[in-house]
Amino acid sequence: MKKILISLATLAAVVIIPVLSGFAQDPAKRMEMGQYAKAKLAYLDKYNKKQTTDPNLFFNLGNIYLKANQVDSAAFFFKQGILIAKSNPLNYVGLANCYYQTGDTVQAKSNLKYSSSLARSNPDYYLALAEMYMQPNPGNAVLAEKNLDKALEIKPGYAKAHILKGDFYLTQNKAGDAANSYKQAIYYDKNNPLTHYKAAQVYRRGGIYQDAINEMKKAIAIDSNYVPAYRDMGEIYLLYDQYPFARKSYDSYIRKIDPEPNDLIRYASILVLDKDFAKASEVLAQLKAKNVQDKNILRLQAYTDYETGKYPEGLASIQNFFQNPQNVNPIASDYEYYGNLLKKNNLDSLAIPQYLKVIELDTTRFSLNEEIARIYEKNKKFPEAAHYYELMMTKKTPTQVEYFKVGRLYYLTATAKPATDSVQKLADSLAKPERIKKASANFAKVCELSPNNYLGWLFQARTQTLLDPETEQGLAKPYYEKALTILNATPDKFKKEITECLKFMGYYYYVRFDNATKAAKKADIPLYRDSSLVYWNNIVTLDPNDKQALDAIGALKQKPIVNK
């Protein structure tokens, strides 16, 4: 069996730890509130000053070291307690616990056997046994409950026993029984904040958050310095996204303690959630000054740098975060901030994989497809941009604006300058008919959803000219006519667009005039000529120097040549 050894180095480390000035005088209260480091300092202060009249000093100090998994140091103090107060059974239980942790069950049982002869009617002895059996090693739920019942048999109104029994029930996933035990504790000790604090934990576990908050407030009303209630109340508010209230609770918590690095890191996280990035930066600066190393600091620093406009610094922080091998499980917001920071540092294309990772981890963020589309559009990669806009549109009811964006992208793709690469040129050529079809389909939806807006009609007309470049079929004519009707309502505002419509219509009738002339259709010639002239003359009215219109008018006014 492994023996528990107390080295001189360990003993020295235990005895000469310095004491904080102005430290609280009630280390037992510190233990109750989970402030073990501070409780340890206070107890060690008493130990160093030989103020050992507290019968439970060595037991409590040993337990603090046990909670920190420092078994040798814990055993040292339990043994010191046995030497000074041989009749106190608690230190034997503590020492037995140490032996259980090292696997020496023989020594553990020997100490427990001896302690039982000293127990008499001491309920704290049975509570110490119960708490030991509640730990994974030795881990015996039957004995834990048996000793809890024994303590309550000796002292039925002992609130501490009811609290520990509630804790036991929670380990057995019996939340209802736990709640009843905590209610009993409150009944017997209404002025103990711990009883309300524990009751709040049951409500929190059951998702009854408002009742949990109410119990935390009762604990604070009893003792305004009961700091765990402020901290945990903040955590409960976070569970249902009440960030301002969570921040307020943590403000009080931080003010009332000498915060450890973990407290400050959590505080900075809540400040970020509450969007107080300036304050978060101050807290992160404190951690940096203390040279605290934690991956969450890099994460929070990146977030706050982005939100406060420090884009190069933020990019460096998020890159360091991802390069740290400990950061094996980044969350969706990490990738999103990485993408945002890359964009702000003019590295747009590198942001796309980050945004895709966000969507992979959190499918509710499908709207990021639009951000990806914008990046591709900015880089003139129109097919890719159209693809990601369409992905976004599959998750919602598209608007006419979204249909227009996609239609325009397909139109730009179909009219783009041919690629110099022969392979790409061939691929674009093969894809062109489908892209024109998609452009037309999207513009048709724009016209349907917004019939009084000229844009859908105008771009549908332009798309049709791709299918009928010589206007032989006149596919674009009805769309240009509709657009022109809408544009003419405000001619001064849309001179360029009106001119485009007029030129198409003038050219449409010019082609038919030319064909009629060649075919010697005497009846059609003046009809098409006059129709064409109307549109070209309207253009000249808008711009007397329009060369194309002037040339067309000159050609139309020449005497037609009729083939015989």
How is this structure best described in words?
Helix 10 packs antiparallel against helix 11 (175-188) and helix 18 (295-307) packs across helix 20 (332-344). It is built from 30 helices and no strands. The longest helix is centred in the last third of the chain and has 28 residues, at 422-449. It has a domain at 505-564. By secondary structure, it is mainly α. It is rod-shaped.
TL;DR of this structure?
With 564 residues, the protein is an all-alpha fold. Helices cover 73% and strands 0% of the residues.
**Helical residue percent band:** over 70%
Biggest sheet character: none
Kindly state the number of beta strands.
0
State the order of secondary-structure elements, H for helix, E for strand.
HHHHHHHHHHHHHHHHHHHHHHHHHHHHHH
Anisotropy-based shape: rod-shaped
By DSSP (H or I, 4+ residues per run), the number of helices equals: 30
Span between termini: 123 Å
pLDDT < 50 runs, ≥5 residues? 1-24
- β-strand percent reads under 5%
Structural class based on helices, strands and sheet pairing: mainly alpha
- Give the rounded overall mean pLDDT: 91
Please tell me how large the radius of gyration is: 40 Å
